[in-house]
Amino acid sequence: MSNRFVYADNAATTRLLPAVLEAMTPYLTEEYGNPSSLYGFGQTARQAVDAARETVAECLHCRPEEVFFTSGGSEADNWALKMAAEAMAKRGKKHLISTAFEHHAILHTLEHLKKQGFEVTLLPVYEDGIVRVEDVKAALRPDTALVSVMFANNEIGTVQPIAEIGALCREAGVLFHTDAVQAVGHIPVDFAGMNIDLLSLSAHKFHGPKGVGALLIRRGIRFGNLIDGGAQEKGRRAGTENTAGIVGLGAALKLACEAMEENGKRVSALRDRLINGLLSSVERSRLNGDPARRLPGNVNLSFEGIEGESLLLMLDFKGICASSGSACTSGSLDPSHVLLAIGLPHAVAHGSLRLTLSEETSDEDVEYMLREIPPVVQRLRAMSPLWERICKGEE
Ligand SMILES: *Cc1c(COP(=O)(O)O)cnc(C)c1O
């Protein structure tokens, strides 16, 4: 076993920053008041929740009253799609547009809506992992209720033309949702400026706590409640607020937004060093997704002739935490739907490796990965009948 530990799976989740824990701690301990209580003790918690709402509004360019806290990204995605579909169906609009490479929180929700009688168009994403605005335009119909396109993909990190799609949808009078879980805290997100109507985010993807996120709902949009009950979140998502979680979300987002430019530069330099180093030292390897229009921390490579799962196990032995496809899909034998959507053959998709870096990744971490990964790939290839066939030119 290696004594080095390199966490390179920041797209799956990130480490809670000590400063974020520190901001949360009072609300897990002495400040346990209920934000809905009228006495001062409850109002301290209320103010903390409101301050977090202000932070979200400032960082993402929306109004505080457009922020609705949820239990995370999956809940926000479900709420956005199900309630938009329900509201629009009342006006006879039952067509939904999304893409083939969304997160399962979107794709499985769309499957559910199909069973309820909605028609779904899934747009292609091409080899570069980018959605074409023309394709969105061509798919729009008079009965289109909603367009949902992720801001940045969680497996290949590609960043989508969200402002252009937003402008198109606004002009066409169609609701536009974006799953921005991978983007928020990492790249600039402008809710108002990009004409976004609905946006999902999750704190644990930017060094906040797990189990808390938000859905931004543009003012004036008629939209169903997610949870009926008390008056929390304007009665739209009832239930006593997760005060500590919401405070943690706010603290983490504030730190991420303040350091975004600096972190972005440093992390994308590490990313490119890792990509170029691995591509040049491993033959028959490829980068998945556009090299430039990608998240600062995302590296996604395919190595022909090997199984991603075996690679992960051997990297784990070296103390490297990585992923092959997304955390939700590993454990099943099907290759990632994202890699298939960008046109990779099954065999190549199976040999994929996702390394996702963060501002906590060091130069030494990258050097270690550059040193350890290529020999592991060679060793796996030496045992692989598929690799043998590739070398003989049979594949
Ligand atoms: C992680 C993730 C989600 C789910 O968020 P949770 O808070 O874990 O429910 C949704 N969409 C994308 C793109 C993600 O990366």
Question: Mean pLDDT, as a whole number?
Answer: 95
How many E-type strands?
A: 12
Give me the side-by-side strand order of the main sheet: 2-8-7-6-5-3-4
Q: What is the number of helical segments per DSSP (H or I, 4+ residues)?
A: 13
Computed Rg:
22 Å
Report the principal-axis shape: globular
**Uncertain stretches of 5 or more adjacent residues:** none
The major sheet is characterized as: 7 strands, mixed
* Terminal CA distance: 35 Å
Topology overview:
Blueprint: E1 6-7, H1 18-28, H2 40-60, E2 67-70, H3 73-89, E3 95-99, H4 104-115, E4 119-123, H5 133-139, E5 144-148, H6 162-172, E6 175-179, E7 198-202, E8 213-217, H7 243-258, H8 260-281, E9 285-287, E10 298-303, H9 308-317, E11 320-321, H10 337-341, H11 346-350, E12 352-356, H12 363-382, H13 385-391
Parallel strand pairs: 1-11, 3-4, 3-5, 5-6, 6-7
Antiparallel strand pairs: 2-8, 7-8, 9-10, 10-12
This protein binds pyridoxal-5'-phosphate (PLP).
Structural account:
With 395 residues, the protein is of the alpha/beta class. The chain has helices at residues 18-28, 40-60, 73-89, 104-115, 133-139, 162-172, 243-258, 260-281, 308-317, 337-341, 346-350, 363-382, 385-391; strands at residues 6-7, 67-70, 95-99, 119-123, 144-148, 175-179, 198-202, 213-217, 285-287, 298-303, 320-321, 352-356. The protein has a seven-stranded mixed sheet, sandwiched between helices. It has a three-stranded antiparallel sheet with strand order 9-10-12. Helix 4 links the parallel strand 3 (95-99) and strand 4. Helix 1 runs antiparallel to helix 7 (243-258), helix 3 runs parallel beside helix 4 and helix 8 runs parallel beside helix 12 (363-382). The longest helix is centred in the last third of the chain and has 22 residues, at 260-281. It is globular, with a radius of gyration of 22 Å. Pyridoxal-5'-phosphate binds at residues 72-74, 77, 103, 105, 150, 154, 179, 181-182, 202, 204-205, 213.
